[in-house]
Amino acid sequence: MMITTHQAKTHLSRYLAEVEKGKEFTIARGKNAVAKLVPLKAAKKKPRPKVGETLDVPFAIPDSAFAPLTKKELAEWGL
Fold first, then answer.
1. How far is it, in rounded angstroms, from Cα 69 to Cα 37?
2. Are 28 and 59 within 8 A, CB to CB?
3. Closest CA to 8 of 22, 26, 23, 32
4. If residue 26 lies in a helix (H) or strand (E), which one and from where to where?
């Protein structure tokens, strides 16, 4: 449906309600079409992660990470 810029400004809320129902409008300045008012395609929403859910690849901490430091390593740290 063709509407003028004046109609678009005056009745924008009404036209947006129609667009939400799937209708399309061509906005014209004088007799020249200048824009289209069309419904947007809904963007796919990514599901939100659940609390505590990991998003990255899990990794394992080796047991050596918890081993006590040697006397040499303690000396290097000044302990």
1. 69
2. no
3. 26
4. strand 25-29
Q: How far is Cα 11 from Cα 4, in angstroms, rounded to an integer? A: 11
Return the pLDDT at 78: 87
Task: Tell me the pTM.
Answer: 0.52
Percent of the chain with pLDDT over 90: 62
The set of residues, in sequence order, having a beta carbon less than 8 Å from that of 26 and lying 6+ positions away, is 1, 2, 3, 33, 35, 36, 37
Between vectors from CA 48 to CA 47 and to CA 50, what angle results, nearest 5°?
A: 120
Residue 22: which pLDDT band, with cuts at 50, 70 and 90?
Answer: very high
Q: Output the six-digit token pair for 35.
A: 């824009």
Interatomic CA distance for residues 52 and 40, integer angstroms? 34
